[in-house]
Amino acid sequence: MGQFDRKAQSEPKHGKPSSSGAYKGPPVMARGIPIHRKGPSYTPKKKPKQTAPSASATPEPLILEHILPLELEKRTLEIFRTTFPASNDFEALKPTLQEIKDALNCQDFETAFGKEEHLEAYTIRWSPSRTLGYAQLLAWVLTQRADDQYVRQLTNSTDHELPTKVVCFGGAAAELMALSGLLRHLRPLEAAGKPDQQEAQISEGLETSSTSTRVSQSPLLRLNILDTADWTSVLSKLEQGLLTPPTLSKYASATVRATNASLLSPGTTEHAFARTDILSLSTEALRTAIGTAPALLTFMSTLNELYATSMPRTTAFLRRLQEAAPKGSLLLVVDSPGAYSEVAVAGTTEGEVKRKYPMNLLLDYALLPKPREVEGGEEEKPEKAWEKVIGEASMLYKLDDALKYPVSLENSRFQVHLFKRI
């Protein structure tokens, strides 16, 4: 859930608002939603003079290529639309969406995600864009790590005795849909739904006693999602959408009916959801959630949120995760560019003061400890548990103009960090 650039279709009706001297950096993010905090005493400053960018300015973002095909993205958006018909009336959703944004602005997550109505509205508004961005990002990551054991297991279409495991710490609809779309792209012969020949034949006045729908003997992908909100209903509805063929017109030809199939075949994926306080998970609980084989562990726009909740608890959690993760596992962290957290530190004469630390610096501190000086002036090198294999400060995924959805779609910006357990 990174910072987003709005597409033209979602710009204000009467054009862009006039520029002011307000802060031009990344907005405060809550669950990936830009939150602009302007109190009643806010006074805009004069617009500063334009200056040429310095050599130390933030580099241009790396543009993600379109690895997953456009038709797969269109199909994904259609599943969101048909699963949640309320998406067709965006105006009716606006009051609920504003309630969610107001609650997130106050970091009141119980109010933001305490109602089924809020969870579905959140999914309708923000999950489709993120799904497409996450899916393309995951596909790119796989191309960068093609020789890793875990990646070979995920992409291998001949040997899948054990399901490939993914554990999402914080997340819901976007993770489920992105990983499902990725699997369909990587393993189409095994993962894709098969046409229901019975329906096609009946439409032509023929009789049949069987269908060609495939039921997998063993899932190709096992997904564990853990979050503080109860996303059970939303996830179940989307899973049903993944396994349901598109609704056809009564005038559809026999050929169209014969090729109509669900995005995924039943039994291809298996997902489990647990509502829990992530930071309270013990090492044993993490081992149970991850398993004994290498897995992909993801923090999609949630790690900075955890740091904002408690920096010491988040650091301790990452250390427990290190103990629980099997060797060969991959840890993927995605967040908004420039994400930072504040921590209170001891001041001089004024007591505690708050300092801001970039999230990636805090992450490296927890996973890649530096040598420390011991008695005698010598350095003690800690045992290396993680290797950082990808570190991108800013990436951008631009949606294809051909994509249509009743609610605004947005390009995705994020920072990306990938670690490998060694």
UniProtKB/TrEMBL annotation:
Residues 34-49 have a biased composition (Basic residues). Residues 1-60, 193-213 are annotated as: Disordered. Pfam families: Methyltransf_34. Residues 198-213 have a biased composition (Polar residues). InterPro entries: Methyltransf_34. Residues 1-14 have a biased composition (Basic and acidic residues). This is 25S rRNA (Uridine(2843)-N(3))-methyltransferase. It comes from Epicoccum nigrum.
